[in-house]
Amino acid sequence: MENPRPPATLADVAERAGVSRQTVSNAINNPDLLRPDTLARVQQAIDGLGYTPNQAARHLRTRSSRLVGLRLTPAQEFTANMAMDRFVRALVEAAREVGYHVLLFSGGPVEEGELPDPLGGYDDLFRSTAVDAFVVTDTYLGNPVAVELTRRRAPFVAFGRPWDDPVASHPWVDVDGAAGVAAATEHVRDLGHERIAWLGWEPGSRIGEDRRAGWHRAMVAAGLSTAGLEAAVADTVDAGRQAAARLLDTTAPTGFVCASDTLAVGVLHTLRERGLHAGPGLPVVGFDDSQVAQVMGLTSVRQPLEEVAVELIGALADLLAPTERTTHGILLAPTLAIRQTSV
Questions:
Q1: What's the CA gap between 298 and 296, in Å, rounded?
Q2: What pLDDT does 113 receive?
Q3: How far is it, in rounded angstroms, from Cα 140 to Cα 164?
Q4: Torsion-angle region of 138 (φ positive above 0: left; ψ -120 to 50: alpha; else: beta)
Q5: Residue 230 has pLDDT above 90, yes or no
Q6: Closest to 144 measured CA to CA, from 117, 166, 123
Q7: What's the mean pLDDT when you consider all of the chain?
Q8: Entry's PROSITE patterns (predicted)?
Q9: What is the pLDDT of residue 60?
Q10: What's the number of CA atoms in the CB half-sphere (13 Å) around residue 257?
Q11: What DSSP character marks residue 303?
């Protein structure tokens, strides 16, 4: 068996292109210093040899690791929420397209009965320059991550609006949950239903409040009553199951729109226990379009997570650019994936 060919070196590129090693280095790190014809010749040699710059050496020269830090949130048991998995995969791919890699980290161990440290893991990575910037996903009300990272002048972009900081200057990308839920409610209304129940989360979640606003807005716009047709519960399948049972016993809704696929799965359990069938006569709609929703045939609001990831990485590139660029917020529209539980 032949020995594998050793990877090309900077010297190999210089020899093939007929230039000095410094010229090759400039082509990689400071291409503006070279004439277009010289840059093209070096790039052709790089492509021909399959040369990959030594990232460790590049880090030492430029203080850039080409790594983006993303803290993993604790797993939620008894839920159908797998949107974060899809988002992480999309973020990794979007980062790779522009020469970055995503470094996943945790907030450290959490003792039983204690809440996780909201800044756990961030400081160590930032102080060691192990990453160039962060993508923050914890933007719930009162979370100090964005405030503290801003105070430390740590570059970051956020998946989620700065709910409690209207003057925040960091870039963010979010999905218009209210619009998605409004579309879901209108879909159920178009099927001929007027008693459309809302299963949402307990108070304190700005995301949950935003999604509820979409249901309420659509109901009011259609001239429909919302009295007795909503429940606020924990985001678990069992909580959704019990809430659906209570609503069916008290106000007899003929359709359900839910803040998550997890709650919607709970509704489906209750319907099955009562010998009822979700469909156009008794529609059920979730939110997130998780793999569970796809397998179970659940109609669900689908977040454009791939587009979110691309926009976040684009904002990150702007943030890390040599010349300062304007920060911005982007609100993306979700879509409705219609399946068996409403058709």
A1: 5
A2: 63
A3: 9
A4: beta
A5: yes
A6: 117
A7: 87
A8: HTH_LACI_1 (PS00356), HTH_LACI_2 (PS50932)
A9: 39
A10: 32
A11: P
Q: Which one has a higher pLDDT value, 284 or 3?
A: 284
d(CA 211, CA 207): 6
Residue linked to tokens 């756990």: 120
pLDDT at 61 over 50: no
Burial status of residue 204 (CB atoms within 10 A of its CB: 0-12, 13-18, 19 or more):
exposed
Residue 324 has pLDDT above 60, yes or no: no
Selected residue with higher pLDDT from 320 and 59: 320
Sheet containing 335-337: order of strands: 230-233, 196-201, 255-258, 284-287, 299-302, 335-337
Q: Please name the residues in contact with 156: beta carbons below 8 A apart, sequence gap of 6 or more.
A: 133, 134, 135, 136, 146, 149, 170
Element (H, E) at 73: none
- pLDDT higher than 80, residue 112: no
Percent of the chain at pLDDT above 70? 86
What structural domains does the chain harbor? 10-62 (1.10.260.40), 67-175+304-333 (3.40.50.2300), 177-302 (3.40.50.2300)
pLDDT tens, residue by residue, 146-162: 888 888 888 999 999 98
Residue pair 167/147 in contact (Cβ under 8 Å)? The answer is: no
pLDDT of residue 50: 83
At residue 181, what is the residue type?
A: V
Largest CA distance in the chain: 82
pLDDT at 292 over 50: yes
Q: Could you tell me how far CA 318 lies from the centroid of its own chain?
A: 19
Tell me how many helices (H) and strands (E) the chain has: 13, 12
Residue 64 tokens read as 């850039």
Measured in residues, the chain has a length of 343
Q: Which residues pair with 200 in a beta bridge?
A: 232
* Burial tier of 149 (Cβ tally within 10 Å: 0-12, 13-18, 19+): buried
Helix axes of 261-273 and 237-250: crossing angle, nearest 10 degrees: 60
- What DSSP element (H or E) covers 71? strand 67-71
Round to whole Å and give the CA distance between 185 and 286. 11
CB distance 136 to 157 below 8 Å: yes
